[in-house]
Design brief:
By secondary structure, the protein is mostly beta strands. The chain has two domains: about 80 residues, Carboxypeptidase-like, regulatory domain (Immunoglobulin-like, Sandwich), CATH 2.60.40; about 650 residues, Maltoporin, Chain A, CATH 2.40.170. It contains six helices and 45 strands.
């Protein structure tokens, strides 16, 4: 690959971004919050609004121990609207017109004495403004060992398989330990390592601003969690686990030592197992981070698909043969002048194997084609990561610089029988990456100026080998015995943004500018060869230079209790495509006007209602532009479009929600419609050997989706909690399959329920279930699939020290092209004994009835698939948990 471009010195010329500045008068409102007997009320939340609808916040303050407050308002207004809240008093609203006097704001106790007593009795939940504090001892059950299990009991919280925490269907932005974000989004190290007994309470921080300079100045929709560690914890504490099993020799070991002090925090973790628990997501970033930086990042392109070692819906321990090791260490130190320095080291090794059978039925006209595939896939991966963060978080300034590096080495192979033909494949991939992100927030006229700079560099080398040779009618080669695909990529990306918020004519304005320049190169070589000779390959040497600019001037205003947000955006793209082998150079320029509009309203601080709509145009990314024929998998040969594709999307959505923390009710509903038009359509061809060729054809292509998601969470009393969600989506897609145009309609209904019941005494019950019905309409053909998954667990507490558990997982799958309905059930039991407050002993028996296979069904595009996974035989393990 030609690296001369990257070896040249990079000159970064300062970008001059005009920002309007408006001088505004300063108003300061001072006062004291008292009760009816003139006692000062500390920790009252005083929020200042500029409008009588109490929607546009211009400042807020928490009263001190004497009930006093002082709020500086940077808008020139004659009237100010105050709302005062306190945990044990009724919220009151006040209208202020005199800014020179000190005001005395009086709060009264609720008239309903019974309601007040009930609130006081719920000491396991404390609400202060937008912070909800849950007492861990009141929330946790006897069997909970790590704090992750307790967090999962908070109404509205769900935890994904990789440890990502979501609240009300949105991922949290931060997880703090004693108010400090040590792990920078890699928080599953803490949630799966901190013992539940070490945490005093969990704070749910709604409308959270991480940067202190934004508090009271910027409205936020982010949610974060803060774990408050008990003060009597030892100098070093943490958790550990160990297991050993037979007849397959399996073992697990985990230890997480934790050191937390005011100026120094350190969390280390060492984990290893070979009993089906993958650790590849352990220590990875689980947060979205800065949205502007996210939009500036380049895609993590992978051309060749590695052997599949994931994808089952049941627990990995039943089917995944693995050797996994993970070692991490995160350290944080606080320096003078509120400067924080963080460092992280991460090592991960995964060696996984999976065995499965797949039957796919493709529909074309009134006919159908079947593809049978049996695979044994193996993939080993070694990953090294280093990170350093320097953060200054003050009331007047926020600076955060993150530097990270990553190295990944993958090796894999796959043994396949595809339509009775044996094919062996080999896979290799090496990746090196470095990223630096700088964020800066300061204020002008008490308004936030938000800026950032991004630098990324990444190089990858990928290789795929198949034996025997595939696609011999398309890839030249006399008497070929193997096919090889080599890909080398190198990418560099530099991006920057700046934004400024200001007030003008009673409207909140935000001017924002984003720019990005990237250089991406790809070399590809595809050829068929035998032992004695090789033919000239299909070769590609492609380079893409792109410059992107996005200019926004968004506005927000209130009208009759409704809030309007208008977000127009002008996007400019300059694309330069270079093909070294043919010495060709193509330049293109694109200019788009995009728009997003949202109207919302809040009722009684519990109900939210809103509608939104957007119009957006975009162009092809690098992975959709490189030319030539690419063998992505041994059975998949694809060719990208020969020109830039412009996609135009129209989106509309309606949403409403209800939230009552004290009663434990959360409701969220979202209905959306999306219609997109593309300039290219994909032509898929399937031959009798089960090999698929994909070509892009210049032809207008339209696809649309209607989706509805409803989630209801309810906590009844202390011991019963439920969460039910319903998802419906219908997609219409145009494509060409085996030379025939198809209009495909895919319909899916999914109902999921989780229920947890505990008496706090002798027994507990947990149930989770998912029912999915899928229907594919392909021209005149109709195909359906049904899949159900049920998980039931029962706990019996024989004494304060002894617990016996019984659980089962059952899957039911069927699809219309088969007369069989597959029912697979797995039964397990476990016994726990706690001889000491720090020690838990356990014995477990998995897959008691020695079930050998597990079957799932899915539908997509013009085909439906049924997957059958081989399971491990009955397994007995003994182990322990020990709290450090």
């Amino acid at each position: 690959m030609n690296n001369s471009y990257f070896s040249k010195t990079i000159y970064v010329v300062a970008l001059f971004l005009w920002v309007p500045f408006f001088c505004t008068a300063q108003n300061i409102i001072k006062g004291t919050v008292i009760n009816s007997v003139k006692q000062p009320l500390s920790y009252s939340i005083v929020t200042a609004y500029k409008d009588p609808n109490y929607t546009s916040i211009v400042g807020f303050k928490t009263t001190d121990v004497l009930g006093k407050f002082s709020i500086e308002v940077a808008v020139n207004i004659d009237t100010l609207f105050l709302e005062v809240r306190h945990i044990t008093y009724k919220s009151e609203r006040f209208i202020i017109t005199d800014f020179d006097k000190k005001h005395r704001l009086v709060l009264f106790r609720p008239n309903n004495d019974l309601k007040e007593v009930l609130i006081e009795a719920k000491r396991n939940i404390t609400i202060k403004g937008d912070t909800v504090r849950y007492d861990v001892d009141a929330l946790k059950e006897k069997k909970d060992y790590t704090i992750e299990e307790v967090i999962d009991r908070i109404p509205g919280v769900t935890i994904a398989e990789n440890g990502q925490i979501s609240y009300n269907d949105g991922p949290i932005s931060h997880l703090y330990i004693n108010g400090v974000d040590l792990l920078e989004g890699r928080y599953n190290i803490a949630t799966r390592g901190i013992p539940a007994g070490a945490v005093e309470d969990i704070e749910l921080l709604r409308r959270h601003n991480h940067a202190r300079i934004e508090i009271g100045k910027t409205l936020s929709s982010e949610v974060a969690l803060n774990l408050r560690i008990k003060k009597n914890q030892s100098l070093v504490f943490g958790s550990s686990k160990a297991d050993i099993g037979t007849p397959l020799l399996t073992a697990r070991g985990e230890v997480t030592p934790i050191y937390l002090r005011d100026k120094l925090q350190n969390i280390a973790s060492l984990r290893a197992n070979n009993f089906g628990k993958s650790l590849q997501d352990f220590g990875t970033n689980l947060t979205r981070g800065n949205r502007d930086i996210y939009q500036l990042k380049m895609n993590n392109t992978s051309v060749i698909t590695p052997p599949e070692v994931n994808g089952n819906t049941i627990s990995n321990r039943y089917w995944l043969d693995n050797n996994s090791v993970s070692a991490t260490n995160d350290i944080l130190t606080t320096l003078p002048k509120e400067l924080i320095v963080k460092g992280s080291v991460d090592y991960n090794y995964e060696d996984s194997e999976i065995e499965k059978n797949n039957q796919s039925v493709f529909f074309t006209g009134n006919d159908s084609l079947k593809v049978d595939r049996s695979s044994i896939n193996k993939l080993s991966q070694t990953r090294y990561q280093l990170g350093n963060t320097i953060e200054l978080n003050r009331d007047d300034l926020y600076i955060n610089n993150k530097l990270s590096g990553r190295f990944i080495d993958q090796n894999g192979n796959s043994s396949n029988i595809l339509n009775n033909n044996a094919i062996q494949t080999g896979f290799k991939n090496t990746e090196k990456a470095i990223t630096n992100i700088l964020e800066l927030k300061n204020s002008i006229n008490n308004q936030i100026v938000d800026s950032g700079i991004l630098f990324e560099y990444r190089s990858t080398d990928e290789q795929l080998t198949t034996n025997p040779a595939v696609f011999t009618d398309l890839i030249p080669g006399a008497n070929a015995t193997i096919t090889t695909q080599d890909v080398a990529m190198e990418k560099m990306n530099i991006g920057a943004y700046t934004g400024y918020t200001f007030q003008l004519l009673d409207v909140e304005w935000k001017a924002k500018q984003r720019v990005r320049w990237s250089k991406e190169q790809l070399e590809s070589s595809l050829k068929n060869q035998n032992i004695n000779n090789s033919t000239l390959p299909f070769a590609t040497d492609f380079s893409l230079d792109s410059f992107e600019s996005q200019t926004q001037l968004s506005s927000a205003f209130n009208w009759r209790r409704f809030r309007f947000n208008l977000n127009p955006e002008v996007s400019y793209f300059n694309i330069n495509r270079m093909k070294e082998l043919t010495d060709s150079n193509e330049k293109d320029n694109y200019l788009f006007m995009n728009m997003n509009v949202q109207v919302s309203r809040n009722f009684n601080r519990k109900w939210d209602l809103g509608v939104s709509g957007s119009i957006k145009s975009s162009i092809s990314s690098f992975e959709e532009l490189y030319p030539g024929i690419i063998l992505r998998q041994f059975d998949n040969l694809s060719t990208n479009p020969q020109d830039i594709n412009v996609t135009r999307s129209n989106n509309a959505s309606l949403f409403f929600g209800y939230s009552d923390v004290l009663s434990g009710i959360l409701l969220k509903n979202n209905t959306s419609y999306n219609n997109s038009t593309s300039q290219f359509i994909f032509n898929r061809s399937l031959d009798d050997n089960g090999l698929i060729q994909i070509n892009a054809i210049r032809q207008d292509n339209q696809f649309s989706t209607i989706r509805n998601t409803t989630t209801l969470t309810k906590r009844f009393f202390k011991h019963l909690s439920t969460q039910t969600s319903y998802n419906f989506d219908i997609s219409k897609i145009e494509q060409i399959f085996n030379g025939q145009s198809q209009d495909n309609t895919i319909i899916n209904h999914t109902l999921s329920t989780e229920l947890s019941w505990s008496t706090g005494g002798s027994y507990a019950l947990n149930y989770s279930g998912t029912i999915n019905f899928g229907l594919s309409l392909i021209d005149s053909s109709r195909a359906a699939n049904n899949f159900q998954l049920h998980h039931l667990g029962l706990d019996f507490y024989l004494s304060d020290k002894v617990r016996w558990n019984f659980n089962t997982e059952t899957a039911i799958s069927s699809f219309s092209s088969s007369d069989n309905t597959n029912i697979n059930s797995l039964f397990n039991t476990s016994f726990y004994y706690k001889p000491h407050k720090k020690l838990i002993l356990r014995a477990e028996l998995y897959n008691i009835f020695n079930e050998r296979f597990f079957t799932t069904a899915t539908s997509s595009s013009n085909f439906i698939s049924q997957n059958q996974f081989s399971l491990r035989p009955i397994q007995f393990t003994v182990g322990l948990n020990y709290t450090l």
